[in-house]
Amino acid sequence: MADTLRIVHCFRSPVGGIFRHVRDLTEAQVAAGHSVGIVCDSTTGGEFEEHLFEQMQDMLALGIHRTPMQRHVGPGDLASAWRTYRIIKELRPDVLHGHGAKGGAYARLFGSLLRVSRSRVARLYSPHGGSLHYDENTTTGNLFFALERFMARFTDCLLFVSDYERQTYRRKVGEPPVPNTLVYNGLRATEFEPVITEPDAADLLYIGMMRDLKGPDIFIDALALAGPQFGRALTAVMVGDGDDLPRYHAQVKRLGIERHVRFLPPMPAREAFALAALVIVPSRAEAMPYIVLETLAAGKAMIATAVGGIPEIFATGSPALIRPDPVELADKMSQALADPAAYRDLMPDGADLKARFGADVMAADIEKAYFAALGK
User: Fold this and answer.
1) Is the whole-model pTM more than 0.90?
2) Three-class SS string for 84-131?
3) What does the alpha-carbon distance between residue 267 and residue 321 come to, in Å, rounded to a whole number?
């Protein structure tokens, strides 16, 4: 077909929301007849991610290419960048879509280099929070924002996953000098089917990366505070992996609640949802987290912090939203568990969620951005 594209997605870490976003996009793009490939880091991810890659392998005409990529800027970046450039050059993309700070830098720089030797390559960048999480009052933050301003000249289109992310870019980096559009993350139709909670389920579930940005420490502190408030020890399941996991094990032990907290490795979100009555997202910063959308689509009640794009999912002033604070979270957990049915009624309407956050809507809007960037 004349309008089929060779699309390469470039990102660093194949875990969490970015990886989920890329998987959904590639699935929709392959279904639309495009040839798609992935270039990402080979040093992050575990058995769960390896299984996901195996599931994708056969459908990606341009393949899955993993090579070491450093998280932070350093001397190893030169060798890593050269390896990544050679892989991308061999794939001959029409569209190079970078996700996150490192993927965005590589996609735009390498897309620009490819333009020197061949026909037009569309260079798109989805921050997914990334460097925008840095504080503009710090030296590190200002360095990253200066780099973002510099990289904008090598960008054909910026794709934001929330209005919060777009406004943050404007405040910290400046008004985008290139086309930009808001495209919300989307879920597959099957994900809007309800998940039944197991009879012996725990009270609370945390699922996500085990790092302070996502707030596992806030969750654990709140769990210890809420028990005496509620009149009994609350039980919890914590699903995920990350470098900080041993610290959270130690925190649970220090607070004397280790008998009531079960740590489990990464698993599909819908499997985890059956393990507890109430889902908690205690993040300190977010762009547009899939886990919030997945939880609500599955018909689960939840408490989430009012950070990043999360309030855009809920109604204005929703009682389900709190600050990332253990005391506030403990109070809200006690309230929600005291009358689960009444609390569940406070969640957003499922039909409205499906209309706003469907994967088909997301993929179609991003495809339009690709063709616009190519002048088609």
Assistant:
1) no
2) HHHHHHHHCCCEEEEEHHHHHHHHHHHHHHHHHHCCCCEEEEECCCHH
3) 25
User: H or E element: which one contains 289?
Assistant: none
pLDDT in tens, 236-279: 999 999 999 999 999 999 999 999 999 999 999 999 999 999 99
H/E element, 138: none
Q: Is 130 left (phi over 0), alpha (psi -120 to 50) or beta?
A: left
Q: Give burial (CB, 10 Å; 0-12/13-18/19+) of 114.
A: buried
Listed in sequence order, the DSSP H helices in the chain are 16-31, 47-57, 76-91, 100-117, 139-151, 163-172, 216-230, 245-254, 269-273, 290-297, 326-338, 340-344, 350-356, 359-373
Please write down the HEC assignment for all residues of 317-330.
CCCCEECCCHHHHH
Question: What's the CA gap between 351 and 226, in Å, rounded?
Answer: 33
Give the span between the Cα atoms of 96 and 83, in whole angstroms: 16
| Pairing status of strand 236-239 against strand 261-264 | parallel
* Amino acid letter for position 207: I
Ramachandran sector of residue 370 (left: φ over 0; alpha: ψ -120 to 50; beta: rest): alpha
Strand order in the sheet with 276-281: 261-264, 236-239, 202-207, 276-281, 301-305, 321-322
Q: Which residues are CB-contacts of 156 (< 8 A; sequence separation ≥ 6)?
A: 122, 123, 124, 178, 179, 373
Q: What is the mean pLDDT of the chain?
A: 94
Q: Are the C-beta atoms of 20 and 208 separated by less than 8 Å?
A: no
The amino acid present at 24, given as its one-letter code, is D
